[in-house]
Amino acid sequence: MSHLSAEKVTTQAYIEQASSSTTSRNGKDRLRMALGFEGIGLLFLIPVSSWFLDKPALELGGLAVLMSLLATWWNYQFNQWFDRYYLAPRGRNIKTQPERIVHAICFELGLLAVFLPLTAWYLAISLWQALLLDLGFMLFYLLYGYFYHWAYDVLFPPPAQKAP
User: Fold this and answer.
1) Alpha-carbon span 55 to 11, nearest angstrom
2) Whole-model pTM?
C-alpha cells in the first residue's frame, strides 16, 4: 500500500470514527468560547495595534470591535453554510485536512472582502495599507486562535463520550 493510500485510509477512518462518536459542546460552552476568544483577542490586539500604527486606542478599538462583531457573524454564517451545503450532502460532519485548508482560506477571503474597504474607509488609509493591516490582523488571529482553542480545550475539555 502506498503512502498516499495509507494516508487516505487513515483520514477516512478518522472521519468515520469522529462522525459516529462525537459529542458536541453545548450552546453555553460555545458562547463562553466565542466571547472569551473575542474579548481576550481584543485585549491583546487594541493596545498593540495602537502602538504599532501610532493611532489612538479608542479609534482602533472601535474598528477592532466592529471587525470582531462582523467576524463573529461571518463565522456563524459561513460555518452553517459549509456544514449544510458541503458536508451534509456527503453524509458527514467532520472535515478532512484538505477540506480544513480550503475552509480556512475561504473563510479568511470572505472576511477580507468585507474588512479591506471597511478598514481603508474607517482609518482613512489606502487599500494597499488596509490590505497590509488586515493581513497583519489575520496573522495575529491565526496564531492567537490556534493557542486560544488549544488552551480552551485543556481548561474546558469537550464532553466525555457516552457509551453506545
Assistant:
1) 47
2) 0.66
